[in-house]
Write a structure and sequence with these properties.
Largest sheet: none
Bound molecules: iron/sulfur cluster
Strand content: under 5%
Structural class: mainly alpha
Number of domains: 1
Number of helices: 4
Helix content: 40-55%
Number of strands: 0
Shape: globular
Length: 99
């Protein structure tokens, strides 16, 4: 499952929805976490990552993003590009653990 860039910051999910109750971004607008590519700025990325850095559910958020292949936006303090690299490593690790 992936989300559209313009969907809400934290869309409803069937997977572990409870962690969202504690998300630091619950009251922020989605533009910070799902910026328009034509207007994305380093300052916005830093602001979003700073909020993520203080978020009590950062790990759960990142895990969710990796498991559900969230390709757009900031999740768990990672950008799209960072998450692509993490996801590759995460998938390799999962395969090794599976046997
Ligand atoms: S880690 Fe960032 S994107 Fe994820 S719930 Fe927390 S503030 Fe929101």
């Amino acid at each position: 499952m992936t989300t559209d860039r313009k969907s809400s910051c934290r869309p409803p999910s069937r997977i572990g929805a409870r962690w969202r109750d504690y998300a630091s971004c619950r009251s922020t607008g989605s533009d910070l976490f799902f910026p328009d590519e034509s207007r994305i700025s380093l300052e916005d990325i830093v602001a979003a990552k700073t909020l993520c850095g203080e978020c009590p559910v950062k790990n759960a958020c990142l895990q969710y993003a990796l498991e559900t292949k969230q390709e757009h936006g900031i999740w768990g303090g990672t950008t799209e590009e960072e998450r692509r690299r993490l996801r590759r490593a995460w998938l390799i690790s999962r395969r090794r653990k599976a046997g």
